[in-house]
């Protein structure tokens, strides 16, 4: 999984691989912390342009999951994101620059994530 979602792999290929890996079931992401974090790290490492390009592919992959799984994954993402939001400091953008945590910018993603996971707005 880490090779398919590495920086050397085009994001579109990673998103297509993710759809095949999940194969209409998100249970592996609900029960395996390492895989969940790896996927989360991959999404966080994407540039805005790459994220926009893969969003339809990722949305389709998650749309094929049972609604209960999408809801549980959304809750898990919220909890995981909440832990990150509670920390101070900066994150590495991958290009040698540091990005400070910006809660206002992070809040802009909530409607998109709700749509991906099929949660009410």
Explain how this protein is built.
Helix content is 64%, strand content 5%. Mean pLDDT is 79; it is low at 82-93. A two-stranded antiparallel sheet has the order 1-2. It contains 7 helices and 2 strands, in the order αααααββαα. The radius of gyration is 14 Å and the shape is globular. It is mainly alpha-helical and 121 residues long. The N and C termini lie far apart (31 Å). The longest helix has 19 residues, at 67-85. α1 packs parallel to α4 (48-63).
End-to-end span in angstroms?
A: 31 Å
| Beta-strand fraction estimate | under 5%
Mean pLDDT: 79
In terms of per-residue confidence, which ranges show pLDDT below 50 for 5 or more consecutive residues? 82-93
The value of Rg in angstroms is: 14 Å
Number of strands: 2
Main structural class: mainly alpha
Shape: globular
Spatial order of strands in the largest sheet: 1-2
Output the helix-strand order: HHHHHEEHH
DSSP summary: helix tally: 7
- Fraction of residues in H or I helices: 55-70%
Keywords:
two-stranded antiparallel ribbon, 121 residues, mainly alpha
Characterize this entry briefly.
Strand 1 and strand 2 form a beta hairpin. The protein has helices at residues 11-22, 27-31, 33-45, 48-63, 67-85, 103-107, 110-116; strands at residues 90-92, 98-100. 64% of the residues lie in helices and 5% in strands.
């Amino acid at each position: 999984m880490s090779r398919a979602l590495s920086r050397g792999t085009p994001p579109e290929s990673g998103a297509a691989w993710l759809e095949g890996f999940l194969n209409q079931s998100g249970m592996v992401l609900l029960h395996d912390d390492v895989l969940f974090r790896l996927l989360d790290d991959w999404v966080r490492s994407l540039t805005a342009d790459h994220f926009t390009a893969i969003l339809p592919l990722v949305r389709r992959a998650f749309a094929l999951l049972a609604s209960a799984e999408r809801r549980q994954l959304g809750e898990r993402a919220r909890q995981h994101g909440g832990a990150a939001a509670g920390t101070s400091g900066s994150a590495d953008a991958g290009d040698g620059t540091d990005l400070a945590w910006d809660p206002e910018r992070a809040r802009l993603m909530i409607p998109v994530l709700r749509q991906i996971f099929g949660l009410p707005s």
